[in-house]
Every structure is written in C-alpha cells, then in structure tokens.
C-alpha cells in the first residue's frame, strides 16, 4: 500500500503513536473534568457540613451564660422565671432549626458528576466498537528454526 493512500505521508508507527497520544489526551481530559466537577461538589458539601456542625454546636452547648442572661433579662420584664427560660430555649431551638435547614439545602445541591459519567460512557462505547485487526497466523513451518551448534545452547536445553 502506498504512503499517499489517504493524502497522509505518515507511517504506520507514526499513526499509531498519534492515536495513542490522542487516546491518552482524551483520558487525561476526562479525569480533569471529573476532578473539576467533584471539586465544586466538595465545596458545597463542606459548606453544608459546616452549617450542620454549627447547628449541632448551638443545639448542644446553647451558650449557657447567654441563656441565663437572656432568661433573667426576660424575667426582669415581668415574665415568670420558668417562662423566661422556656422562651430562651425556644429561641435557641429555632436558630438550630434554621442552621440545620441551611445545611440540608446545601447537601441537596450536591450532584453526581453527570458530564464526566456521560463522557466516559461515550468513550467506552466508541472504544467497544473499535476492534483491532488481527494478524494472520503464520504456520509453524514458515518460521525458521534455530538448531545446531551456532545457536544459543541455553535455548536448546529448554527445548
């Protein structure tokens, strides 16, 4: 077959090297795309985690000194002490609920890397269709056999 077959003067080795480089670049680009998508989702997950940690911290520790100060401040306005503490408790639970909802909404925005999955599936489909051309099998008689004293004695010993 002539080299000018397709208007391309590259040899088979050069074509194979070019195809290998293109396939390698495709794989590297898909990995970079997946990393970019996962990095965005990791930032969203980190923000959601931070909000949930804040909600749990507020719900558990509830800043005792501020709670007492608020309760006694409400009591100074004329509300009984029991109701004052209950109002402060309700305010902290409300804040914890709001922080929890913010964290939950952030977690809902975390998605699968759809573009990477689609691209990988398309590449896999293309590669499944591409089949290598098998070389014709050579009969054993066509191969020259190496025998005699000129050949490597280690090879003859293994046979």
Please give a structural write-up:
With 159 residues, this protein is an all-alpha fold. It has one domain (12-130). It is 71% helix and 0% strand. α1 (12-61) packs antiparallel against α4 (114-129). The longest helix has 50 residues, at 12-61. The two termini are 39 Å apart.
What tags apply to this protein structure?
single chain, 159 residues, mainly alpha, 71% helix
Fold blueprint:
Elements: H1 12-61, H2 64-76, H3 81-108, H4 114-129, H5 153-158
Briefly summarize what is shown.
The chain has 159 residues and is mainly α. Helices cover 71% and strands 0% of the residues.
Shape: rod-shaped
Number of helices: 5
- The helix-strand sequence is HHHHH
How helix-rich are the residues, as a percent range?
over 70%
| Overall mean pLDDT | 79
Number of strands: 0
Main beta sheet: strand number and arrangement? none
Q: Over all CA atoms, what is the radius of gyration?
A: 36 Å
Total discrete domains? 1
**Helix vs. strand class:** mainly alpha
- Which blocks of ≥5 consecutive residues have pLDDT under 50? none
Distance between the termini: 39 Å
Strand portion: under 5%
């Amino acid at each position: 077959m002539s080299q000018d077959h397709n208007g391309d003067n590259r040899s088979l080795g050069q074509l194979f090297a070019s195809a290998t480089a293109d396939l390698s670049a495709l794989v590297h680009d898909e990995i970079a795309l997946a990393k970019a998508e996962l990095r965005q989702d990791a930032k969203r997950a980190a923000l959601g985690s931070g909000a949930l940690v804040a909600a749990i911290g507020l719900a558990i520790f509830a800043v005792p000194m501020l709670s007492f100060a608020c309760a006694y401040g409400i009591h100074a306005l004329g509300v009984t002490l029991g109701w004052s503490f209950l109002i402060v408790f309700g305010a902290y639970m409300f804040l914890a609920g709001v922080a929890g909802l913010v964290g939950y909404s952030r977690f809902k925005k975390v998605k699968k890397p759809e573009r990477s999955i689609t691209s990988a599936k398309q590449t896999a489909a293309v590669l499944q269709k591409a089949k290598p051309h098998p070389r014709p099998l050579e009969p054993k008689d066509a191969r020259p056999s190496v025998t005699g004293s000129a050949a490597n004695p280690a090879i003859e010993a293994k046979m």
